[in-house]
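Batch manifest line 377
LIGAND: heme C
JOB: complex structure
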Amino acid sequence: MRGKFVVCAVLLAGCASESGPEHPEHEDEIRTLLGLPEHFELPAIPDYNPPTAAKIELGRRLFYERRLSANETQSCADCHEQSLAFADGLKTPTGSTGTVLVRNSMGLANVAYNNSYTWASNGLLTLEDQIKIPLLADNPVELGVTDGVRDEVLARFDDDPEYAQLFEAAYPEETAGATVNKVVFALASFCRTMISGGSPYDRFIAGDRDALDEQQRQGMALFNGERFECFHCHSGILLTNAYRDANVDDADVRLVFFNNGLYNVDGEGSYPEYDQGLFEQTQDPNHRGLFRPPSLRNIAETGPYMHDGSIATLREVVEHYAAGGRLIEDGPFAGDGRTSPLKSGLVRGFEATDEEIDAVVAFLESLSDPEFRTAPS
Ligand code: HEC
Ligand code: HEC
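JOB STATUS: finished
ARTIFACT:
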């Protein structure tokens, strides 16, 4: 991503601070700043945080900066590694003070296009709102910049001449000094540059029929067919219904969450008590086990899978859907997810041969974009 940035900084020096989605004449500049391929729409970007080259550069530095955590041990990148499409390869990660989180670290490819953030939230609709959580939250602690230590952490950046200059360049019209909002807006701007559109699948939809081999094309047909049903929830350019771009008005955003039948601990559809998905926010019993369908881009790099990392491989994910849910025979979470009354009607199970399952896995692997994981950042 640094490679893209340097080019943009040269092209856009001086004019970028006026950029914003409300200025359509600047659309080309934003597309260049974010590194959008031609077949990607402009993402929806809040008016109050238009991207600029200087904000993106500051955000990039902060993303890799362990001094951004209260005890200086952890950065965003410790849980979001570029080589793993910004996931971390763990079932669930551990925060800076040792708390093991209950949810799997999400990959961040094309995160600018989510219509909601995290595995299950109807309240986090922008990157700006989401990023405050790993930064500031005290339960669970991630970076742990809680009220009591906030000024101390921000002072680290004011006291560092290089950072002071980066903050000044990113926010030339504001009073000097680091603030939580400046940090969050810069991180959000950087995350919007995590664009992945160079997979074999992208070349295929651009018209290069040979970009996918025969097995992958068969897998794509199964993925988009009425027996496997995947496309009903994983649709469109990013293979998720939870997508929006600049063409979608706020009023038309439709949040989507589904229960995949992973658990049924009480015969009534409950998930383990420590994480019942959307229910944690709404307390509506019908929302137990509801999670957002994630984008499947770079999915081969971001395992283990599902909100709690409880499925190890892509093959097992497809087998999970073929079984129509998960039977857990013993242990604390024993129960038959296949018979959950809260499971989506689209997860009903299907007959599939081993070859067909292999083909769907091969298709999912075609969604990986090696350049995204290795471009300088
Ligand atoms: C301790 C590990 C950890 C750290 C540190 C961390 N994250 Fe995360 N990140 C996660 C987990 C886990 C989730 C899923 C959270 C959930 O669903 O409640 C997540 C979710 C996200 C998402 C939402 C992605 C989506 O598709 O909805 C973004 C964006 C994000 N993190 C960015 C950041 C940034 C920026 C930082 C640094 C300020 C950061 N993260 C620090 C583990 C971490
Ligand atoms: C009813 C909607 C629905 C259908 C149909 C569906 N999915 Fe999903 N998918 C989801 C949701 C929701 C999640 C996250 C569930 C969770 O974590 O509890 C998910 C998660 C996944 C994941 C793991 C994502 C990650 O980042 O860990 C993969 C891979 C996946 N689905 C592939 C498929 C395939 C292949 C099919 C077809 C066989 C399919 N899905 C059908 C909704 C659906």
